[in-house]
Design brief:
The protein has helices at residues 16-24, 45-53, 72-84, 106-139, 152-163, 168-175, 179-185, 200-206; strands spanning 2-8, 32-36, 59-62, 88-91. It is an alpha/beta fold. The chain has a 4-stranded parallel sheet with strand order 2-1-3-4, with helices on both faces.
Length: 208
C-alpha cells in the first residue's frame, strides 16, 4: 500500500499542492498523513502516525525528501530504518529520485548512496564551521559556549570577601560560585604599592 506524507512549516502555509501531487501519484486521500510543523522539531504527529501505520511492503510517498527529516542525515537514517522494516520511501519532485522499495533498481540504490554521501558532506561542513567559529571567537578573546548567569549580589559579596583577605577557596565555599566564574566576574584586584620602611633601603645597600 502507498501511504502519503505531507508537511508545511507553519499553520499559514497550504498543504494542498503536496496533497494533490500525492493523489495524482496514486495515493488515496484517506492514506495521506499531514503535519503543519517545522522540520526543526521532532514533534510531528502526522509523521509518527504514518510510521506506526506502515507495514512490511508499504511505501511512504513524499513530494520531496526534505518533508521527512531535518537534515540529509536524518532523512537517510529514516530510510534505512524503514528499509529494515520492509517499508519503502519514494519521492516525487526531487532532482534525485529515490525508491527504496525496489532493492533491485540500481538507480534507486544509487540515489540512496548519494544521500549517504551528501549526509557525510553535511556533517563534515557542520563540524568545520563550528571549529572555525570557535577558533575565531577564541582569537578575539570571546568565551565559547552558553553564558553563565551569576547573581549580582553574590558577585558583590565575593568581591567584599576578597578585599577583606579571603582566599579564592574560601570565597567559592561561602558563595557557591565556581572558581572559573569568580575569575571571570570579579573586577581586577587593585595594584598595591608598598613603601619601604625608613632605613630599609640603606640597610639593603649595606648588605650588598
Amino acid at each position: 500500500m502507498d501511504l502519503g506524507y505531507a508537511r508545511v512549516s507553519t499553520a499559514k502555509q497550504d498543504l494542498d499542492r503536496q496533497v494533490e501531487a500525492l493523489v495524482v501519484a496514486g495515493v488515496a486521500r484517506d492514506k495521506i498523513f499531514l503535519d503543519k510543523k517545522s522540520g526543526a522539531t521532532t514533534d510531528r504527529p502526522g509523521l509518527r502516525a504514518a510510521l506506526e501505520y506502515a507495514r512490511d511492503g508499504d511505501v511512504i510517498v513524499v513530494h520531496t525528501l526534505d518533508r521527512l527529516g531535518r537534515t540529509v542525515r536524518d532523512t537517510l537514517n529514516l530510510i534505512h530504518d524503514l528499509t529494515d522494516r520492509g517499508v519503502g520511501v519514494r519521492n516525487l519532485a526531487d532532482p534525485i529520485k529515490v525508491d527504496s522499495a525496489n532493492p533491485r533498481d540500481p538507480m534507486g540504490q544509487l540515489a540512496v548512496v548519494l544521500l549517504a554521501l551528501f549526509a557525510q558532506m553535511e556533517r563534515t561542513y557542520t563540524v568545520e564551521r563550528a571549529a572555525h567559529a570557535r577558533a575565531v571567537a577564541t582569537a578575539k578573546g570571546r568565551r565559547i559556549g552558553r553564558p553563565v548567569v551569576v547573581d549580582a549580589d553574590k558577585i558583590a559579596y565575593a568581591a567584599h570577601l576578597r578585599e577583606t583577605g579571603h582566599s579564592i577557596a574560601d570565597i567559592v565555599a561561602k558563595t557557591g560560585i565556581a572558581r572559573t566564574s569568580l575569575y571571570r566576574h570579579l573586577p581586577p584586584r587593585a595594584v598595591e604599592h608598598h613603601t619601604a620602611a625608613p632605613g630599609t633601603a640603606r640597610a639593603a645597600e649595606e648588605h650588598t
